[in-house]
Amino acid sequence: MPFVGRQDDERRVVINTVGPHWDGNQVWFITGGGAIFAAWPMVYATAFSGFYWAMLAVLWALFFRPVGFDYRSKIDNPTWRNTWDWGLFVGGFVPPVIFGVAFGNLLQGVPFHFDDFLASTYTGSFWQLLNPFALLSGVVSSAMLTLQGSTYLAHRTEGVIQKRAMNFSLATAIALVLAFVGAGVWLRWGGIEGFAMASVVAPSALPDPLMKTVVRSTGAWWHNYQIYPATWLLPALGIVGALMAPMMAFAQRTLLAFVASSLAIVGVIGTAGAAMFPFILPSSSDPSSSLTVWDSVSSHLTLGIMFWATVIFMPLIVFYTGWAYRVMRGKVTVQHIRANSHSVY
């Protein structure tokens, strides 16, 4: 926002494009954490303890968002508003970077292990998380979501703001593709060892992360792509979607640009997911302590309740969210902001 919006009216335009929706969207962070706790409680406990300071950094950064949105326009003072503008920038920039850094560490393995009582011990530190490959993954994540934001702005604004958003979409698309491909090359030929199952999985057995054998080898993260060639569509979708987004934006097909950037997100995250499957939280200090989709899962009863809750409530959420976006559709302009100077945002 501080770069696309150069004046107060322009920044209010940027804020008002998401003003009616940001609080509902942010609830998905809480839902995601709750879903992990319910479906994979051991993953929740291990990850949230090992990544404790990183999670706190995300939480602290997110503090700026609700306060910034609600209080920015309460006082008509340039210093006051500029401070909250940068607060909103921090709240939007820090979490994607940390999420990307977390993914980068997952691909390298997290230093934790379980004892005989399945109590986990994390042996790393916060600063170990900030290694070169993880920081490159943070660039991928930040560029990916900035591309999404810029295409959304291009669709909801016009004039000079839209032009700047388009320029940002081009810059972030290039950064995303270069960092994404670079991370893939590093993962394949840069000496980073992946994880692979070396024992037979018994789906009917009780979940126990220590009852398996895991080996590490260079190129192991590419094993699924060799077995299932269709998974190559995911990185292709990430690259093509990222490149198509600015092309569609500059062609004034802004809705298609937003769809393309959304597909790029699916491709990029799906690429990491396909590479890591079935691992959710690999362990670098004790590979056999790695958590997979089978040995860290909740009971059948819990999963059954979650399934039916999703079947019933997810369509309702999609319906009213779609309705809200439809009602609030259209361009947000400087003229509209000036004519409604006493609005919330």
Task: Provide a descriptive summary of the structure in words.
With 345 residues, the chain is mainly alpha-helical. It has one domain (8-332). 66% of the residues lie in helices and 6% in strands. It has 12 helices and 6 strands. The chain has helices at 8-18, 22-39, 41-50, 52-71, 78-108, 132-156, 159-189, 223-227, 233-250, 254-276, 300-327, 334-339, and strands at 112-114, 120-122, 193-197, 214-218, 279-281, 291-292. The strands form 3 sheets. Strands 1-2 form a two-stranded antiparallel sheet. A two-stranded antiparallel sheet has the order 3-4. A two-stranded antiparallel ribbon has the order 5-6. α2 (22-39) packs antiparallel against α11 and α9 (233-250) runs antiparallel to α10. The protein is globular, with a radius of gyration of 22 Å.
